[in-house]
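Lab channel / #folding
Pinned by the channel admin:
"Please post every new chain as: sequence first, then the structure tokens as a reply. Keep commentary short and put observations after the output so the thread stays searchable."

First post following the new format, from NK:
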Amino acid sequence: MQSTERVLSLRQLNQLVASLVQRPETQNVWVTAELLDVAVRGGHCYMELLEKDERGLQVAKARGMIWASQFPRIDAEFRAATGQNFATGLKVMLRVSATMHPVYGFSLTINAVNPSYTLGDMMQRRREIIERLKKEGIIDMNRQLEWPLVPQRIAVISSASAAGYGDFMNQLYTNPSRLRFVTRLYPAIMQGNNAPRSIIAALEQVAADMDMWDGVVILRGGGATSDLQAFEDYELAANVAQFPLPVAIGIGHERDITVLDWVANKRLKTPTAVAEWLVGTGEEVLGYIQNLGAKILQQATDRVSGSRQQLAQAESLLPISVRGVIDRSRNRLSQYAGMLGQVSARRIHPGLTRLEMLRSSLTTATQAAVQRQRVRLDNIAGLVDALSPMATLRRGYTITTVNGHAVKSVAELAEGQAITTAFADGSATSTINNLTQTK
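Reply from TO:
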């Protein structure tokens, strides 16, 4: 090192840099950037400002701050316009002045914010997510599902310590109609960068128990409006859109709409409103049933009353009706009796005459038929007698038998055989000595 070369202290170098940085052209300049590590300490707001290229790679970075004298005004204006607090991940347009502090180094001091730029970026990101969901054909899937007529088995995704969850449970289980509900909490982080991933994990647990539930509610009561950024997430929206059970959300916002509002089956502004909707659905059906029961009771009462009147009238008319029926029946019987006598005189007497004639004719015919049968029997008896073996024997013929069987041919006999000869007046037994057979 030569003695003629200039040597600066670090402070002198920083002061030199500051003289180069803090120039009119670097003061009150509008720049665009993305916020990182936003934190408020001692009333001051500290952050990192980033710029990324199309591939998402960081190409520039600077430290930024808003002094406590400016931050309340800037934060209030920004929140009123966008519904958001300064938070990591937002894209902003800031009016900055470049400063170089000898101790703290280079930074950008922020003295104004253009909320329209951030709002436009948020809307653009939301539109991109919605268009992607539409292109994939899933944006309406959950909204097309139908809740049961009375949803009573509810899976709840929320933080166990959230006031909104407590309000929901209190409203649901102390309903004046005493409707019964079954719920289970599936805990999840409801704000911050980890919220989408935590809610998706809770949805996966609900899906594993899907048969146990009629639907799902996602609750986030209270909290800063900046926490709504957790619900501007594509992966979370896609999971809700394709979830097999209907999903209702009550994340504590009325004016602002998130991507989740586009895909959920039902959107209600608060956890209490979700509980009121569930109770109201049950009360509506209960009221319908009660009205229907009242109508049935009224119609039954009217029917019974009318029947009683008819019965009383019938009871009053019954004695008169019975006497009238008996009198009319007696008159008809008397008429029938008179008619029967006349009919008997006209029909019975001719019949008796015909019967008497038939009786006489039947006697004569019977005697003649008997006589004819007697003659026929006598003729048959004479014929039988003439053809009998005894008649043959009386004419001088004989009958020869061997062992009780009549002999019809000499070929049936043998010499020395005993035969019996039957005559008209007896029989004789002999032995064959000689057989002669004629040709």
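NK: The mean pLDDT is 83.
TO: also worth noting, The longest strand covers residues 29-41.
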